[in-house]
Structures are given as C-alpha cells and as structure tokens.
Write a structure and sequence with these properties.
It is a single chain. Helices cover 11% and strands 39% of the residues. By secondary structure, it is mainly beta. The strands form nine sheets. Strands 1, 2, 6, 28, 29 and 30 form a six-stranded mixed beta sheet that branches. A four-stranded antiparallel beta sheet has the order 3-4-5-7, with no helix packed on it. A four-stranded antiparallel beta sheet has the order 8-9-10-11, with no helix packed on it. The chain folds into two domains: 353 residues, YVTN repeat-like/Quinoprotein amine dehydrogenase (Methylamine Dehydrogenase, Chain H, 7 Propeller); 50 residues. It is globular. Belongs to the WD repeat coronin family. This is Coronin.
Length: 469
C-alpha cells in the first residue's frame, strides 16, 4: 500500500509570521474604543491611518510609514467629522487620498500632504451627504478611481461618482443593516452580508439582486470574493455558536459548497484574501492569532497551512497593498495589528523562507498597480475591465522606491494637460475632480498611443510586402 501525505505540495507550505521589532512599531496611539465591527486602520506604501479616541467629534491619525516609534500625544489629526469615525480607506490609485465615514452621516475625502500632517486637518476635499443615518462602511471600486461605495445604518448603499461629487445610484435591497461589502476583481459584482442573515450578489450599476442565500442556520458576518475563482467566502456563527467559514458558488447560492468550523470564540472573524498567491488569512477581533490557508477551486478547497500566534489581542488589522511589501525579504503579505491595551500598532509580515538571492517570480506574480483601468463614466455606462497589472521586480532592484524623490519631473504637460505628480494641499474639491479627470486623460492617451504603434507595425509590414513584390 502506498503512503500519501495529507499535505499537498505547495510553495507556501512553510510561510511563517514575523512580528515587527519594537523599533518598527508605532506606540502611544489612543486607539478608538468603538465597539463597531471594523478595522479602524488603513495602510498604504506611504501612510498609516488609525482611528483614535477623541472628544467633540471624530478623528484619525495619519502617520508617515517610515516614521515608526512613539507618537507625540499632540500629533496632528484629521478631525473634520462631527461624529465618531467608523471606517477609513485609502484610495488604491492615489496614495495621498483617503476616504472616511462617520456617525455624522457623511463620507469625506481627504488629501494628505506628502510629508504627513503638520497641523490638524479640518477641511475635506469633498463632503458626500446622502445617508440619513450613520455611515458605517466604505469601499473603493477596484479598477475605477472615480467610484466609491458607502453603506449606512439607513440600510442603503450609495454609489458616488467622485468626478462629479454626487451620488449616482442608491441600492435599496437590504431590510436591515449591511455588515460587509466586497467587489469582485473587475468591480462588476458586489457581494454583501446583512443583519437579516442573507448573503447577496448584486449588480452594483442596476442595483438588481442576482443571487441571494438565506443563511437560516448561520449568522453571516463577513464576505469576500475569492479572486477569479468564481467563489465567495463568508465568515459567521453557526447555530451552535461556533465560528465558521463557508464557500459559495457566486452563480448559485442555494447551498454552500463546503463549510468548516473554526473555534468557539465570539469575536468577528475577518477574512483577507490574496488573489496573487491564492492564500486566505483569518484574523478574529479579540484574538491573538492569525490563521492562514491555501485556496483551490477543487476539493478540498481549503488547505490549512499554519497559524501566527501572539498573546496580545487585536482590535483590528490593516493590510498593506501588495505593491508595498518587502520583495527582498520574500514578504508576501503584511498586517498592521491594533493592540488597544498598549496603544500599539504592530506590523506582522508573512514570509516565504527562501535562500536564493534572486527575484522570486513564482511567489510575486503580476499584481494590481496604481493606474485605474477606466473612468467613472465608462464604468457607469456598463464597461468592465480588470485591474492594470504591474511587476514587483523593479521593487527588488530598488529596495527603497518610496524614498526616491521626484525633482525636475514634478510637473509635466501632455497635450496641454497639466499633470501634477506631487499635488499641493488644497481645500477646494475641484482639485480632486481635476485629478480624477486627468487620470482618465492619461489612460486615453496611452490607449491612443498603443493604437498608433499597432498601425505603424501594420504599415511597416505592408511596405515590406510591397518591396518584396
């Protein structure tokens, strides 16, 4: 009889979690005590943002990523909201732009100066007013820089066109509070979980519910699309009050493909999916550990790999975009863990142990870059495009790309369009609209250039054929 290992061969079998040293942590942060089930933390390659405890309104800190250590108690804050801040999200396309939602029923767009804040920021670039009750969730469109979604306690989802600064669609398909929203890879579908225990797949442009699952035996809390696998994963609580995860076919939500119980703890289980490596990370609110799995479209669907353990419970977890990980250290994922009792934000790196000193292309495939694939008008008209991908190989050649400063290339003009690479802070929302419109112009010019290159190749071929005849 042949012996078969219970583990399939995997390049991520030995991934391990590594907590940052004290010099790499951010200390002295008055992390919010809000009981809202959210992360209260957002990060990108330039900044770390954390929602803080404050009196007389809502505020959050923005710290340059390269300045860890103890934070000054009087560090400037973004404090323009009238109520507590409930969610913050960095734009996936512009590292200086962050959106926030609040109990004051508004969503606000802020522009952070390159070096960080020098004084309290109270004036937002744009104030989006439309919810009648507090705005609890926000979500950026994954491929279109001008589209933002917000969900409020009024049970409505508003789609905002940031190029115009107006709400262009209201999705009113939920009878109760929306707990989570997740876009698929190209932003053509939206998955939501609701307090009414139902999972929904929605066409965000029309607001039509395409699929609906009535999870009577479970309470679904969080939902995430699993890349291009046409699968959806949910986390929730079973009828026996144990935390569990479930796999669903996004085209048939009549029953889950598979379910797996995790443990008997009570904190909300947050899922994080890395489409580049097909890895799933599970971090619970109040837990000290992070479990990670490898996902496959075939059985057994979910292969447990390992678990990062820590004695300190986490309030929330921020996730660094893939373009911000340390390629030289074979880091494939990075969390920023909020530890409320210590006022601490601790980075946790997920590392593939490799001895080779060359670029590891198999664990760093092409990933989403900072260029939007389409404009808000194109997406609203029904066009879908996947994210524009970039290679991380350049980051390997240049270990500290974030430290490079533009000098004479700070300002360029293309066909009379003024392109500002380092935009100075401005309180006028027209500035933000101009940025979104310029991104669209850049994309159109690149498309036009590509078409002309193709035409040149065709003419060269025709000329060659004529010469041969």
């Amino acid at each position: 009889m042949s012996w078969h290992s219970m583990y399939k061969s995997s390049k991520f079998r030995h991934v391990y979690g590594k907590a940052g040293s004290r010099e790499q942590c951010y200390e002295g942060i008055p992390i919010t005590h809000s009981v809202h089930d959210n992360h209260f933390c957002a990060v990108n390659p330039k900044f770390l943002a954390v929602v803080t405890e404050s009196a007389g309104g809502g505020a959050f800190l923005v710290i340059p990523l390269h300045k860890p250590g103890r934070i000054d108690p009087h560090h400037p804050k973004v404090c323009g909201h009238q109520g507590s801040v409930m969610d913050i999200r960095w734009s996936p396309f512009m590292d200086n732009i962050i959106a926030s939602s609040s109990e004051d029923c508004t969503v606000r767009i802020w522009q952070i100066p390159d070096g960080g804040l020098r004084r309290n920021m109270t004036e937002a670039l744009m104030i989006l007013i439309g919810h009648s009750r507090r705005a609890g969730l926000i979500e950026w469109h994954p491929t279109c820089s001008g589209i933002l979604l917000s969900a409020g306690y009024d049970c409505k989802i508003l789609i905002w066109n940031l190029e115009e600064g107006v709400a262009v669609k209201m999705i009113d398909s939920h009878p109760d509070v929306i707990l989570c929203m997740s876009f698929n890879t190209d932003g053509s579908l939206l998955a939501t979980s609701c307090k009414d225990k139902k999972l929904r797949i929605i066409d965000p442009r029309s607001g039509k519910v395409l699929q609906e699952a009535d999870c009577k035996s479970t309470r679904v809390n969080r939902v995430v699309f699993l890349g291009n696998l046409k699968r959806v994963l949910t986390t929730g609580v079973s009828r026996w009050n144990t935390r569990q995860i479930a796999f669903w076919d996004q085209e048939d939500l009549s029953a889950p493909i598979t379910e797996e119980e995790i443990d008997g703890l009570s904190g909300v289980l947050f899922p994080f999916y890395d489409a580049d490596t097909h890895m799933l990370y599970l971090g619970g609110k109040g837990d000290g550990n992070i479990r990670y799995y490898e996902v496959s479209p075939e059985k057994p669907f979910l292969q447990f790999l390992m678990e990062f353990r820590s004695p300190a419970p986490q309030k929330g977890l921020g996730v660094m975009p893939k373009r911000g990980v340390d390629v030289n250290e074979c880091e494939i994922f990075r969390f920023y863990k909020l530890v409320t009792l210590k006022g601490l934000v601790e980075p946790i790196s997920m590392i593939v142990p490799r001895r080779s000193e060359t670029y590891q292309e198999d664990i760093f495939p092409m990933t989403a870059g900072t260029e939007s694939a389409l404009s808000a008008a194109e997406w609203l008209s029904g066009i879908d495009r996947g994210p524009l991908l970039i290679s991380l190989k350049e980051a390997y050649k240049r270990p500290n790309p974030a430290g490079l400063r533009a000098s004479k290339r700070d300002r360029r003009t293309v066909k009379g369009i003024d392109l500002l690479e380092n935009i100075t802070p401005n309180t006028d929302k027209e500035l933000l609209k101009m940025v979104f419109k310029q991104q669209d112009e850049i994309r159109k010019l690149k498309d036009e250039l590509g078409e002309k290159d193709e035409r040149i190749r065709q003419l060269e071929l025709e000329l060659k054929n004529l010469r041969n005849t």
